[in-house]
Structure formats: C-alpha cells, structure tokens
C-alpha cells in the first residue's frame, strides 16, 4: 500500500514540473506585409436596378416611297431600209514633186551594180517527155539569156530576153516545129441493137 502511494505521488510531481501545454490556436497576423496606399478615386458604385415598366410595342415601319414612273420609249417603227454609206474614197492623189511613172521611179535612186554571173542548165527525159533548158549571162548591169521548153503539142518554145536596171525586162518569144494533137475520142453510147454488157459477180478465186 505504501509503495502504491509513493508511485502515485511521483506521477503527480512529474506532471506539476512538466512544460506548460502549447496553445494550438492560430491567430491572424497583426500586419499583412503590404503598405500600398489606398486609391484617391473612389470606386464607382453599381447602377441601381431599374424597375421594368409596362410593355410597349415597336413602332410601325416607315412607308415605302412610290416607285418612279417608267420611261417612255423613244424609238418607233422604221420608215425604210437605211441608206447605204456614201463612199469617201476617190482617185489617188499624187504628191507634188513625185514621179508618176512607177516603172521609172527607181531611176531616181542611186544605181548599185550587181555581181556578174554566168550559168546554164538543161533537163531532157524521153520517158516523160520533159525537155527544157536555160542559160543567162550578166555583167552586173545587164542580163542576157534564153530558155527553151518542149511543149506538149510538139512545138519548141524559145524565149530570148534582155533585162537591165534602167529599162526592165524585154523578151522575144518564138516557136519551132508544127503543133500536132491526138485524134478525138470516138466515144458515146452504143448503137441500137448492140448486145448489152452483162454484169455479174466475179469468178471465185478459191478463198
């Protein structure tokens, strides 16, 4: 019994000498850490709610303006076919101081002699009856030449010519031989009573 009382007394003494209990209650801080000054302009107060009034229908639409009158036609029935346009052309007008003769107009231009040349060729084909030749000689100012052609009628056509820058081209045409023509074709319809030609399928070729 005595031992039990001693243990109980020791426990009470220990409780009295122990640390005081901790206060777990959190308190707000004395300062929030911000030192911003308050604004000089006060915040606007929200508008007061409006009391709904009686319902009013929307106003009627404005009337449309009247349509403009339709334009009157300005055309009419044609009185007749249109007249053909009058010609505006006329005879050509020759400028003053120009040469009226076109063939001799080049005489007013300075003459530049050409390059002298001399050539000749001939073609003769008895199978097809082709026979022609040509030869010419030029000293740069004047050309002299001749060409021959065997015509289908049997004649030989010979053309001798002279050409120069001042007077142009001059030709002399002559023919040799006598023209001959084949006999006329004695065709036509068969005489009366002649046997008519018999037409039929071709003979078989064995295909």
From TrEMBL:
User: PROSITE patterns from the entry?
Assistant: CHIT_BIND_RR_1 (PS00233), CHIT_BIND_RR_2 (PS51155)
- Positions of the region Disordered? 37-103, 180-207
- Pfam families in UniProt: Chitin_bind_4
List compositional bias (Low complexity) regions by residue number: 187-199
| Gene Ontology cellular component annotations, sorted alphabetically | extracellular matrix; extracellular space
* UniProt keyword annotations, A-Z: Cuticle, Signal
- What residue ranges are annotated as transmembrane? none
Q: What one GO molecular function would you report for this record?
A: structural constituent of cuticle
Biased composition (Pro residues) is annotated at 39-72, 79-94
Origin, by domain of life? Answer: Eukaryota
- As given in the record, the signal peptide range reads 1-18
**The protein, known as:** Cuticular protein
The scientific name of the source species is Nilaparvata lugens (Brown planthopper)
């Amino acid at each position: 019994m005595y031992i039990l009382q001693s243990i109980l007394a020791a426990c009470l003494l220990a409780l009295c000498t122990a640390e005081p209990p901790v206060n777990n209650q959190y308190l707000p801080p004395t300062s929030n850490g911000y030192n911003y000054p308050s604004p000089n302009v006060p915040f606007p107060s929200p508008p007061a709610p409006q009391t709904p009034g009686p319902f009013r229908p929307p106003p009627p639409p404005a009337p449309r303006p009247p349509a403009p009158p339709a334009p009157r036609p300005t055309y009419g029935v044609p009185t007749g076919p249109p007249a053909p346009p009058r010609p505006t052309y006329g005879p050509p007008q020759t400028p003053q101081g120009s040469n009226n003769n076109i063939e001799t107009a080049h005489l007013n231009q300075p003459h530049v002699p050409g390059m002298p040349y001399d050539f000749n060729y001939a073609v003769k084909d008895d199978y097809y009856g082709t026979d022609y030749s040509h030869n010419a000689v030029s000293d740069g100012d004047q050309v002299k030449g001749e060409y021959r052609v065997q015509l289908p009628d049997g004649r030989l056509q010979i053309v001798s010519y002279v050409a120069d820058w001042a007077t142009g081209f001059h030709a002399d045409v002559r023919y040799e031989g006598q023209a001959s023509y084949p006999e006329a074709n004695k065709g036509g319809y068969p005489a009366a009573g002649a046997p008519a030609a018999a037409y039929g399928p071709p003979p078989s070729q064995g295909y």
